[in-house]
Design brief:
Blueprint lengths: L9 H13 L12 H11 L4 H14 L3 H5 L3 H8 L6 H16 L8 H5 L6 H12 L8 H10 L11 H11 L4 H17 L18 H4 L20 H14 L6 H5 L5 H14 L3 E3 L2 E3 L2
Antiparallel strand pairs: 1-2
Helix pairs in contact: 1-11, 2-3, 2-8, 5-6, 9-11, 13-15
The chain binds a DNA duplex (11 and 11 nucleotides) through α2, α3, α6, α8 and α9.
Pfam families: EndIII_4Fe-2S, HHH, HhH-GPD
Protein name: Adenine DNA glycosylase
Keywords: 4Fe-4S, DNA damage, DNA repair, Glycosidase, Hydrolase, Iron, Iron-sulfur, Metal-binding
Length: 295
DNA sequence: TAGCCGTGGCA
DNA sequence: TTGCCAAGGCT
């Protein structure tokens, strides 16, 4: 029997065994979780840590257990319930996503990656995550954790190269077990490994199930030598901070917030206007009689 | 396509 | 304290 290029994935075997033994018990991984529950979790987890998502996710699904139930309320209710998860446009997109599912998919979350990609707020990562985790479709799921795990374990680099969709998907595909069940587990397990062991800072290599085959470890942990990502802009004093202050006010209010009230939120009037205009353009705020409200 | 978009915890 | 980081997506 000839050797084939797509190796039989000793990595996946070890990572899956570790995952089955020690994965965090997250509710959206429970067998009974609905596809909609998976969708909601994926929206909330976009750039927001698990610990902050957990309570919000449970409350959200109790209130809106189906896409149709969310689609039936104004989008502003979704934005208000989003509370302080951050990036409130995600709440708007999740609501729009629910409307589209209700109107164009009979209220059923699609299983097809291309149909998922067509939905608001669903990009390359989320589409594959929903297909894989909600429906068991054998597709590679690549997020920042997976990219880091593969960069280290397979490529022997401290950090992944800048994202390149085709290459990243191919790299994950090369490790993905042929069996659909094992593939689904590995998609979750690789992410979990990156989230709790193979972390960006201070990886816990002594707890790693694939330390023995890790290329980065074998190479002596060489430092990253590629291009640096642009540093995140300072938040304090930024437009983002001002937008956050305005949104907090709109969420708390049940009658229109006036210009005078907004003026008390921030000393720089020009910046305040710029932030408000941005929120209006994004559809996160709307002009009402005498002020502004959630949509 | 690079910049933008919230919020909070941690080192 | 300051900067980095966190299951991305949109324009």
């Amino acid at each position: 029997m000839p050797e084939i290029a797509t190796a039989p994935a000793p990595v996946a075997g070890a990572v899956n065994a570790w995952f089955r033994k020690s994965a965090r018990p997250l509710p959206w991984r429970e067998p009974g979780c609905s596809p909609w529950g998976i969708v909601v979790s994926e929206f909330m987890l976009q750039q927001t840590p698990v610990a902050r998502v957990l309570p919000q996710w449970q409350a959200w699904l109790e209130r809106w257990p189906t896409p149709a139930s969310l689609a039936a309320v104004p989008s502003g209710e979704a934005v208000r319930a989003w509370n302080r998860l951050g990036y409130p446009r995600r709440a708007l997109w999740l609501h729009a996503c629910a409307v589209t599912i209700a109107e164009q998919h009979g209220g059923v979350v699609p299983a097809d990656v291309d149909e998922l990609l067509a939905l608001p707020g669903i990009g390359p990562y989320t589409a594959r995550a929903v297909a894989a985790f909600a429906y068991g479709i054998r597709v590679p799921v690549v997020d920042t954790n997976v990219r880091r795990v593969l960069a280290r374990a397979i490529d022997g680099r401290a950090e992944p190269a800048p994202p390149a969709a085709a290459r990243d998907l191919a790299a994950m595909s090369a490790q993905l077990p042929a069996d659909a069940t094992e593939a689904r587990v590995f998609n979750a397990a690789a992410m979990e490994l990156g989230a709790v062991v193979c972390t960006a800072r201070a990886p816990r290599c002594d707890e790693c199930p694939i330390a023995a085959v890790c290329a980065w470890r074998a190479a002596g942990y060489p430092a990253y030598d590629g291009p640096r990502r642009a540093a995140q802009k300072k938040y304090e004093g930024s437009d983002r901070q001002v937008r956050g202050l305005i949104m907090r006010e709109l969420r708390a209010a049940h009658i229109p917030v006036t210009d005078a009230e907004l003026a008390g939120l921030w000393p720089d009037a020009a910046q305040l206007t710029r932030a408000l205009d941005g929120l209006l353009a994004d559809g996160l705020a709307v002009a009402a009689d005498g002020g502004y409200t959630l949509p």
